[in-house]
Design a protein that fits this description.
With 232 residues, the protein is α+β, with helices and mostly antiparallel strands. The structure holds glutathione (GSH). The site of glutathione (GSH) has 13 residues, from loops.
């Protein structure tokens, strides 16, 4: 039985979604973020030394890193689903987006979150706060936001070629991309094809079922909610 070590409001939600699509039995072990630091509890470090989510256990195997988990689940339990055939152009696209989601899309999103939080830090002396706000605001405006806009434009172009990120079938690339796209939805302006792709995913029965297994998922909040509740 697959056990998902699931942190609330986290990347691990997409693993639950994949498991629902695969329609295999699994258990969810829930962990709650510290409400002040938003970090995972120490208990997660007993599962994997980094103490990050997602992590899954399957028999004697412990697997961390979403891309590795998605790849493992699809190749072990997919029976050929959710992965394009080897040697096809779709397979190359699949490999690209599987790596890109965490390797390229997430860093500017995490940066935006951190730069947004710096001026709000309660430890910061009040007279430094306006200076911090000015610096972080300038970096966000001049560097991070243009980067994010370029990423969203890339997604829009890719979804102009096919219904999903790696062709006309739902694949691991879409499971991986769901989190950066959801996280961007509250930090950048999404474009029409990306918005439609996300709406299509949110309408899936398996996606909804995964939400009920994972508990409240606030990553999809509005821009204003996001400044308070959207952790990464
Ligand atoms: N690249 C890793 C990132 C893992 C990660 O940073 N997970 C976040 C949740 S979205 C986490 O555990 N944060 C809590 C913490 O760092 O304590 C993956 O995709 O699995």
């Amino acid at each position: 039985m697959v056990i998902v070590h699931h942190l609330n409001n986290s990347r691990s939600q997409r693993v639950l979604w994949l498991l629902e699509e695969l329609d295999i039995p699994y258990e969810v072990k829930r962990y709650q973020r510290d409400p002040k630091t938003m970090l995972a509890p120490a208990a997660l470090r007993t599962v994997h030394p980094l103490g990050k989510s997602p992590v899954i256990s399957d028999g004697d195997k412990t697997i961390a890193e979403t891309g590795a988990i998605v790849d493992y689940l699809i190749t072990t339990y997919g029976g050929g689903r959710f992965i394009p055939a080897a040697g096809t152009p779709e397979r190359l696209r699949y490999t690209y987006w599987m790596h890109y989601a965490e390797g390229s899309a997430m860093p500017p999103l995490v940066m935006r979150l951190i730069f947004g939080e710096i001026p709000k830090s309660p430890e910061m002396p009040w007279f430094i706060r306006p200076i911090a706000r000015k610096i972080t605001g300038a970096v966000t405006e001049n560097y991070i936001d243009p980067q994010l806009a370029a990423h969203v434009a890339l997604w829009e172009a890719e979804l102009g070629k096919s219904a999903y990120f790696a062709g006309d079938e739902l694949t691991g690339a879409d499971f991986m991309m769901s989190f950066p796209v959801e996280a961007s939805g509250s930090r950048a302006t999404l474009t029409p094809k990306v918005t439609a792709w996300l709406a299509g995913i949110h309408a899936r029965g398996a996606y909804k079922q995964a939400l009920s297994r994972g508990g409240p998922y606030l990553i999809m909040g509005s821009r204003s909610e996001s400044t308070k509740v959207n952790p990464l």
